[in-house]
C-alpha cells in the first residue's frame, strides 16, 4: 500500500513537471534591427514570470507531498494500533471468578 502511494505520487509529480514544461512558449529570435534593450527586458520579465509560476507549482506539489506523508503516517499508526497483541490477557471479570 505504501509503495503504491509513493509510486503514484512520483508519477503525478513527474506528470506535473512535464505538463508545466509544455506550457512554456518557445523563445522567439530577436530581431537585430530593433533596439536590444527593450527586447531583452521583455524576455527577462517573461522568464521571471515563468520562474515564479514554476516556483508556485513546486510549492503546491511540496504541500501535496507533505499532506500525503501525514496521511501515510496516520495510516501506519492506525494499522499498528489495530493489530491485536499476540497473547490475549483475560478480562477483569474473568479474573474475579
| Uncertain runs | none
Please identify the structural class as seen in this structure: mainly alpha
Please state the CA-atom Rg, rounded to the nearest Å: 27 Å
Q: In sequence order, what are the helices and strands, one letter per element?
A: HHH
Overall helicity:
over 70%
> What shape does the CA trace take?
rod-shaped
- Tell me the total number of β-strands: 0
Give the helix tally: 3
Mean of the pLDDT scores?
A: 77
List key phrases describing it.
97 residues; mainly alpha; 3 helices; rod-shaped
Protein described:
The protein has 97 residues and is an all-alpha fold. The chain has 3 helices and no strands. The longest helix has 47 residues, at 36-82. The model has no long low-confidence stretch (mean pLDDT 77).
Compact description:
Helix content is 75%, strand content 0%.
Write the topology of this structure.
Elements: H1 2-22, H2 36-82, H3 92-96
Helix pairs in contact: 1-2
